[in-house]
Amino acid sequence: MESNDPLIIAGKHYASRLLVGTGKYKDFEETRAAVDASGAQIVTVAIRRTNIGQNAGEPSLLDYLPPAEFTYLPNTAGCYTADDAVRTLRLARELLDGHSLVKLEVLGDPQTLFPDMPETLKAAEILVREGFDVMVYCSDDPIQARRLEEIGCVAVMPLASIIGSGMGILNPWNLRLIIDQARVPVLVDAGVGTASDAAIAMELGCDAVLMNSAISHARNPVLMASAMKKAVQAGREAFLAGRMPRKLYSAEPSSPQTGIIAPAAIAKAA
User: Is the terminal CB of the chain with fewer CB neighbours within 10 Å at N or C?
Assistant: First the structure.
């Protein structure tokens, strides 16, 4: 199913609809094992927290997840202003030899890690103008999502709930409003806690799911990564199949009604 139903971002095709982060693992070996188990082809990396060459002499993520095998998605985690975010992604492009696909997030405060949307919009305009392919973390507000698309972002990524909370999708109705209007991929980003959350996001019609803490903070991260892979695949298949209608107070037998042997005939035969 995957190869015939690719995720397309900035003109490139991906078989996997699960994107995973590379932070919060005990070491780079566990990071690699979890990424392999997830089947992800796009991996996010926080430029301010992970070494991809900016710290000479220290272990580099590039040695464990070579860019020849994975598409890197450098992100601006930890940035609270548009200027900081833009500077961070300019550095990422330099470190990754002109790489243009990036994840923009500009946070509003360290307590909730909600996006600061005015600063996010400001940074998005600058980055798009400079030739970046911007995937953007945003609030689950359909108006803001539409504005980001109009600016030229290649994907919008509304939060399901607070980053790292594991609370799942708290407002599915807003996600549906964003999905229904969007002409670019919509990815749930932040708040996924377990496999059922990922499946629900895909069943709603999201194009993909991005997660980090749900895998890295699991008791067994590698096993959870495998579960998330299956959940995303199952949710996508369910969305494509189309669920049966919900019917309140309208029971319907699961077996066909034609050709039923009448009760009287059963009694006579007895």
Answer: C
pLDDT tens figures, 203-256 = 999 999 999 999 999 999 999 999 999 999 999 999 999 988 888 776 666 666
pTM over 0.85: yes
Residue 26 a catalytic site member:
no
pLDDT tens column, 75-127 = 999 999 999 999 999 999 998 888 899 999 999 998 888 999 999 999 999 99
CB 99 within 8 A of CB 93: yes
The Cα 41–Cα 14 span in angstroms is: 7
Check 103, 122, 230, 247 and give the catalytic one: 103
Cα 198 to its chain centre, rounded Å, is 9
Nearest-5° Cα angle at 74, 190 to 19: 45
Sign of CA dihedral 90, 96, 102, 107: negative
- Kindly state the DSSP code that residue 195 receives in the 8-state scheme: H
Q: How many angstroms separate the first and last alpha carbons of the chain?
A: 51
How far CA 227 is from CA of 2, 113, 199, 224, 233, in Å, comes to 16, 26, 10, 5, 10
DSSP string computed for 239-256: HHH-PPPP-TT----SS-
Residues in the chain: 270
